[in-house]
Amino acid sequence: MTEITRDVLIIGAGAAGTTAANDLRKAGLSVAVLEARDRVGGRLWTDVIEGAMLEIGGQWVSPDQDALKDTIAELGLETYSRYREGDSVYVGPDGQVHRFTGEMFPVSEATEKVIADITERLDAMVAEIDPDQPWAHPKAEEWDTITWDAWLREQTDDDEAVRNLAFATGSAMLTKPTHAFSLLQSLLMAASAGSYSNLVDADFILDKRVVGGLQQVPQLLAERLGDDVFLNQPVRTLEWSDAGVIATTDQMTVKARYAILAFAPVLYNRISFVPALPRRQHQMHQHLSMGFVIKVHAVYDRPFWRESGLSATAFSPYELCHEAYDNTNHGDERGTLVGFVSDQNADDLFTLTAEERKERILESLSHYYGPEAKNPVVYYESDWGTEEWTRGAYAASFDMGGLHRYGADLRTPVGPIHFACSDLAGAGYQHVDGAIRMGHLAASNIVASSRDAG
After folding, report:
1. Which of 194, 259, 271, 408 is the most exposed place for a label (fewest CB within 10 A)?
2. Known binding site for substrate: residues?
3. Is the pLDDT of residue 252 over 90?
């Protein structure tokens, strides 16, 4: 059993953990990063599958994500814009395929007006929300005790409008059925991107990608830490007191003055805390759960959709793949589509065989792009639900009523234990940007605390 002593122990080598560790090192504190997986990156994972480079995890960079953009620049990485020239595609409730340009789906004038009016109302509500403390809004409890779906259906009886408004935060972001989370949780999701309009604007949210893949961010940050990153080290026990922490893995013991839990809160219960965490944390963590989404990668010999003037941007709340995009790699002659299947639809697909699942998904893509979509040369499904150290995607959100009740405690340190990951972020919530912000925050809090103690 190896024993080491450091100023700060970081559990988790994703974007949050590696960011915090580098900040702490710069401040003159020693660190050890313990990672349960056999790789650095957490929910960022760039891999080569059958000769195709695929972004199995997170991949996009938005214009408002300053923390991520600053890190990308500081690491010397390059970005490129997602391909978006040409028409988008929308499939309506009757199964008809509509080509369109601009942000608004090609729906009837009446439905378009309803969507525009409710979007304006949502933008006004989101403008009042502080993403770092949505529970502080005077109407937080009211908004946290009505489901997103129910609130929308109170606004209009236009089902197509409701479905199109709902899926921006439901299937697309929180990846849960819209009856399973609150209006407040939905407003937080929008506030984290600056506005509801930003969230539904694919050209904003899915703006750029990193040449060579986004996993390079935590990988390069980890490289700077050298031998202080330890892979295949799931922490089994964490003893804590005012004096510090002692973490035990199957091969190591790490003693430190502070610890940062830099991984999703749904996994905190994989560690035995001695003594147990306070009851408030136990309750809170039982009200957080991951969403579920299958990210589908289909690689073709060429980006055939461009030949017919399509950008490959596609949406439909009526399709199995509720959204899809051109995900062709920088400088690649081949064309890649990425599609998403969320929540109940994703659950249902996993009752099928792999071959049946593939057939259903490609059939759905073919409704957007034509029969050629059924014949990719490489096909792969990112299924984070089977990942032992993730257990879902993209991130954790509260059940009904949980956000206003427990949200203020999410980042509150417990003795020497601090918390950092994208699931706890305000701006950048559920995104790599949020993970980096939380890494910076936890590190600065520890630096301040160690100065006060010193």
Report:
1. 408
2. 340
3. yes
